[in-house]
């Protein structure tokens, strides 16, 4: 906003200045806050503003009711504005057009920032090679216990679904495409993993949750955690499969073409990440915080709502997202907030089909 032009020591949108009558005794100066509280109208100083008229009604009458925009210098009757301005604004005032431009400019800036912030970040491997060995060791133990082999990519076999079946264009309603920059980040992470610079996570065993993944360093929001890998198969082949780690890969318009990832023989750390319980409220309703809102209530009543605060939602710190990458579907796990070292990873298993039973999850 352009700085206000100084035409007198007073602001143009300020309250009227009452000149003391020659007969009255000198008065003490009142604080500006008190003057503004009592002020009814804006005063236009006639000497400099005699040619000002209202942009809405075109009239220059009732100059004492004219507000001047601190940016474009144009005049507006307080009662011609919508909504009507009933008292002189405290501080600077912008007319509807100037405040709209400012809002729009602000919005586009924040969108750019938002876009920048939403870019995928590569994980940062621990510097100490011994620490990385320990991390890989915990994964190797868990894989061995599950009789699985490590695989950091999707695998295809003729007895299941061929690679040609994995086409993002088959997705019912289309699939979001991973941006070029995010693809580079994904490739960078894969290259790091191949060199033994693994992501800083460990797999631990918990008597309630089974295997679960914990961070071994602080993780930033939007950090790429892992790709969900395993054998790709048609959903139709797996209808009676009791594997609890299957992941949706493709939901095709023709259900016969839908695919799942099955990490029963091969997979990576993604297969050990646990889910949130999104059925059971963690706090009883009386103890949930109240949120107050009066925005949409015309008669200005203050209304409080209880917001459902599911414990699981609070634990959730990553998400599982399907993307089209070079025309194929891929499933990526990404941090949804900053995660402290030692925190366990959780995401919502019911992201797509709302079917996974999580009632028993801790
Ligand atoms: C993809 S696996 C995750 C790794 C699994 N915990 C394991 O030991 O192999 C999914 C299974 O883990 C278990 N699980 C996942 N999240 C859980 C949670 N929050 N509490 C308890 N069990 C959970 C459930 O048995 C679920 O079917």
Automatic annotation (TrEMBL):
Location of region: Disordered: 1-29
Keyword field: Chromatin regulator, Metal-binding, Zinc, Zinc-finger
Pfam entry (one): PHD
The PHD-type domain, residue ranges: 51-101
GO molecular function, one term: methyltransferase activity
Boundaries of every SET domain copy: 199-350
Biological process, per Gene Ontology: chromatin organization; methylation
Name of the protein this chain belongs to: Histone-lysine N-methyltransferase ATXR5
Organism: Hibiscus syriacus (Rose of Sharon)
